[in-house]
Amino acid sequence: MNLRQFIPSLEPIKDKDFNFTFSVFTPLYNAEKTIERVHQSLLNQSFTDFEWIIINDGSSDKSHDVIQNIVASSPLTINYINNASNKHKMACFFQAIHIANGRLFLTFDADDECLPDSLEIFNTEYYTLSKEQRSDIIAVTGLCKDQNGNTIGSQFPSNPLISNPFEIKAIKNIKGEKWGFTRTTHLQSIKFDDCFIVNGFMMEGIIWNLLAKHGYQTKYINTVVRIYHTNVANSISSVGDDKTALGSVVYYVALYNWFFKSHARKAPMFFFKRLYFLLSKSKFLDLNLKNYTTSIDSFLIKFLVVLLWPFRKFFK
């Protein structure tokens, strides 16, 4: 198996007309107790030019009944899809992107809240950029706080900061949960083999890194826009290492193939730590050493994988 087959690519961006400014997408699995919190957050928004896409990913609780009641009584424009079986979050993500009718795509998990002016802040921050700037800057991302009012993770070193998701983690070492939107046209231009979806549990970060690889940037702001509820299990993504291993390994292989040559000197420890993670996750896959060496571009990383392969059983 060549792991490259799981790595998505980006086709030329095509302009398109949309009916809304935002498509707010909520994937959920067994969220009957928290989905109303999301609904109330959206009802409270000062900026109202949005649609709400809900995809119920084969829930086994009463989520479907709760959502049907919301759809029947809510004044919001809601596009609801009830998957008969569990397809996993990444499959739901692309389901939503395919039907999105808003220019800006924002994922909003089924157990969180946003502030009443969150969409207004996002809209203002993006459209204060010039049209020329918006050709390269395709996203805005802000800060989160927990349900107790504590800001989560690092602030950005400047406000605003123009960067991309790879540099934010690898170079600037920004930590903690953040929240933001991305231009829908760019997400709709992502091309992937079906195996990327049917194998489930692919890491969402590979999508943001793909856009960064192609030179697209994000405007980062030190403004709190989301309330992220901590110590709450997110059932749509809480799975074991055996299920997430393939997605993690593909993510790390893509990191090396896209960024190692250009950024190795700037962030050597970042890449060596990811090598440890790659080998640690590889223990859960029935793949041989050649599957990795034929998938990785860098000769140095190939060499290190071969060198460390006998010791991966000790990696936690």
UniProtKB/TrEMBL annotation:
Keyword Metal-binding: no
Pfam families, per the entry: Glycos_transf_2
Name recorded for this polypeptide: Glycosyltransferase family 2 protein
Organism (species): Psychroserpens burtonensis
Keyword Transferase: yes
Residue ranges annotated for the Glycosyltransferase 2-like domain, each copy included: 23-122
GO function term, MF aspect, one: hexosyltransferase activity
Transmembrane segments: none
Entry keyword set: Transferase
